[in-house]
Design a protein that fits this description.
Layout: H1 2-6, E1 11-15, E2 20-24, H2 31-34, E3 40-46, E4 50-52, E5 57-62, E6 68-73, E7 78-82, E8 95-97, E9 104-105, E10 110-114, H3 116-122, E11 128-132, E12 140-144, E13 149-150, E14 156-162
Length: 163
């Protein structure tokens, strides 16, 4: 009991996995993301086709069509990076994934590269949601950056703290 009273609040951060313009999740033109069915988060309109690990943890899922990667931090926060909207229809074309399910990753490690222009031409949007898929299950509060632009790894995208 006393340990909990004097325990310091642990603050965790999720770095920006790509550089680009911040889009509030509510403004993403896809109800699955905008209505937060997948969880809390934010989206980025990327300036380049490089995705870096925003956290230390493990790759828990690489979607077969290569358009999304799921990570789990060392303390159990699940982060989904979903490149573009309706990119599942591209069937993996335009994506080059550098990791596999089960791989351990560190902040800044390359996860994938994608052809930004190809996706811009062949998908609904290049907007890339970054979502905490277990946000309803963890006892954390979320603060999204108030910056309008982020730089991969240099910018903090989401800060989590104990409630």
């Amino acid at each position: 009991m006393l340990k909990r009273l004097f325990k310091k609040e642990k603050i965790k951060t999720i770095h920006a996995p790509l550089s680009g313009k911040i889009i509030p999740l509510e403004d993403v033109p896809d109800p699955v993301f905008s209505q937060k069915m997948m969880g809390e988060g934010v989206a980025i309109q990327p300036h380049e086709g490089k995705v870096l690990s925003p956290v230390d943890g493990e790759v828990i899922q690489v979607i077969k069509t290569k358009h999304a990667i799921g990570l789990q931090t060392t303390d159990g926060v699940e982060v989904l990076i979903h490149i573009g909207l309706e990119t599942v229809d591209l069937k993996g074309e335009g994506f080059n994934v550098h990791v596999a399910t089960g791989d351990k990753v560190k902040v800044g490690q390359s996860l994938m590269e994608f052809d930004l222009e190809f996706i811009r031409q062949h998908a609904k949007s290049i907007i890339t949601p970054v979502v905490i898929t277990n946000s309803n299950e963890i006892n954390q509060s979320f603060t999204v950056t108030n910056n309008q632009e982020v730089k991969a790894i240099e910018s903090i995208l989401i800060t989590l703290s104990n409630q």
